What does this fold into?
Amino acid sequence: MPQDFHGVMPYLVSPVDDEGRVKEAVLARLCEHLIGQGVHGLVPLGSTGEFAYLNTPQKERVIAVTIEAANKRVPVIAGVAATTIADAVAQAKSAARAGADGILAVLEAYFPLNEAQIEGYFAAIAAATDLPVTLYTNPNFQRADLSIASIERLSRIETIRYLKDASSNTGRLLSIMNAVGERMKVFSASAHIPACVMMLGGAGWMAGPACVAAVPSIRLYDLCRAGKWDEAMVLQRNLWSINEVFARHNLAACIKAGLESQGFDVGNPLPPQAPLGAEARASVVAALARVNG
It folds into this structure.
């Protein structure tokens, strides 16, 4: 019986040194730290993992190190992102061979694609392995995004069981939930809307901020599960302060700066991205201090 994904699942950073080598010990220590804090799963190569800036060997090492560090204590949902179906299928098969527990499917696009082509991409990933697939939809960043009709059709594929929606549009989420019924569970994004999504019936959230604020994120999830909505909304408003800072800068740079301040030598975001300046870094550290207490 396939396991049920739920709860707080941080999008991991990808620590890479100046020579392009994955900082395996740093990544493994981060995984150990997050598991110790109580996260419900780990997601390498999500948006915060800078998948668009990594080559194939780097991606494979990030996934392999995460799987080894998790050691089956929590599920590992490996990011798969490509512009071609062939590449995406190869990535999915590689992640399955490495021992991943699930796939986070992302479509990168340059030329415009129609609905059938977009659906074909995700269906091919689902057909490549028997792992449960999480669709990732983010209208703010993706050139070719999933429509509600496409999500409904894809939800009828047995292994496509989850959706991570970063639209922040609760009306869209309600339409999706009504369309897919019990066939698909929805994960929220970031630190500013999880309580709202949980109130609508969400399964949890996959997000970079949980890397640097795992404890309050888990506390928020627990409050939502317990139906303690007044307490949950107080904590939700507090967590929003992280997003207010992060929204002004590059997300990976913010998460990496935050982790550096917490003692993890994750390095800078991958070029051509730039690290945060001193003032921005100080604002990130201050926001995290307020949230983490």
User: Anything to note?
Assistant: The longest strand covers residues 77-82. The chain has one domain: 7-226. The beta strands are 7-10, 77-82, 102-107, 133-137, 160-165, 185-188, 204-207. The chain has a mean pLDDT of 94.
